[in-house]
## 1
Amino acid sequence: MLSQLVAYYEDEPVRTKGRVEVEQVPFVPTAPMKASDGDVRPNVVYVVVANPVGTPLHVPFAAFDEWFLRDRYGEALRIVNTLGASSVECKTSRDSRRRSGVSGAVKGFGASLRRNRHQTSMFDYSHVGTGSQPRDPRPLKWPDEPGFGAAVSSVLDNKATAVTINISSTTRHSVNGSLGKKLAALGFELGVSGESSDAVSLHMVAKFPERSRWR
């Protein structure tokens, strides 16, 4: 995936003093550009994603990691459905640091209680059907994503009846990370963050009918 950081300024660019690499471009209100959350706004740092099947997209820095996970998830579903999957199951695993609990003394003994907060993931998904004649889903939106190209080749070339795709979240654009703190300290806005302390991994299993069924 090719991406770059871009910010648009109204009067003059922010003096970065070489601390960060952000391309700064004059903001032209009469020629609005679309972002993942609406129109591009001045002084907000965007990750500009080069899309091989469409125009580049501006995603606010703070929202990029969650957007990236959602977009790859949607692409994985598109791939396996286009390949004619008869069943799809996606499960989410989380490595959560968020805990709530109480501590105190009970009859002279120290006691503590920790409870993991259960969350239902919007990525959990299952589908069962009859399947369909496989079609080629290429070009792929994320051709370098591990498992995407392999799934296509396995079904179309090797007549696989089941493929597994694993997708993990990233934390490269955290507002609390080194780069995020530097950008904020320079006066840039990072957009609305939907991040949490959870690391999310998606495990997708797709099954396909025997190829002979469609002959």
## 2
Amino acid sequence: MDQKSELWNTAKHILNHQNEHPYTDNEIKEIIRLLEDISNVVCHNLTH
């Protein structure tokens, strides 16, 4: 859980750093999900 909190805080900090329109928590969740899905596809493709 600490690792997820750290990931969440880091992602929120990076995404909203000097951002005129900060991302909402829901948008950050969607971005993280999208990146996880892309990561899964890349890893799957590397093994085949």
